[in-house]
Design goal:
Blueprint (H helix, E strand, L loop, with lengths): L4 E7 L7 E4 L4 E5 L7 E5 L6 H12 L6 E5 L4 E8 L2 E8 L2 E7 L1 H9 L9 H15 L7
């Protein structure tokens, strides 16, 4: 059985309000299709140095259509797919369906640049971090 694939419209920096924010742990908080009732949290890029950021930005810029770049974190990961020269997709689950959120190159690079070691979140984005922490505290613990 094939898994359904849903495409979201292309998000760009110049478009309507779709980005709630980027929390201190570099998670991207998006509203699917700009719908505030349908939020999704996508793990973003975290780096330990400027050199690592430059390397990953270089890998992103070198992507060709059909190629992908996986951003691995301690918990979770994010995969960026190059759809065309100015269209990139990030996979995420929304209501159990796989969704590809589409971004233009400028927007994708802006999201990745939030990984810069000197980047500081705005006050409202600190609140997103608190919200994520509260969600994690409400998750059941796994005991083997």
């Amino acid at each position: 059985m094939l898994e359904s694939l849903v495409l979201s419209p292309c998000y760009s920096l110049d478009a309507a309000n779709w980005l709630e924010g980027i929390d201190p742990s570099r998670h991207y908080w998006l509203w699917v299709n700009g719908d505030r009732q349908l939020p999704v949290i996508i793990p973003g890029l975290i780096v330990s140095s400027i050199e690592e950021l430059r390397t990953i930005i270089g890998q992103f810029r070198a992507l060709q259509p059909g190629e992908s770049l996986k951003l691995t974190r301690i918990v979770g990961s994010c995969k960026i797919h190059c759809v065309s020269s100015n269209c990139y997709a990030i996979e995420a689950r929304v209501d159990s369906a796989l969704v590809w959120h589409l971004f233009d190159r400028k927007t994708m690079e802006s999201l990745l640049m939030a990984a810069h070691p000197d980047w500081l979140p705005a006050e409202k984005e600190l609140e997103l971090g608190r919200k994520a922490l509260m969600r994690s505290l409400n998750q059941p613990l796994y005991v083997p």
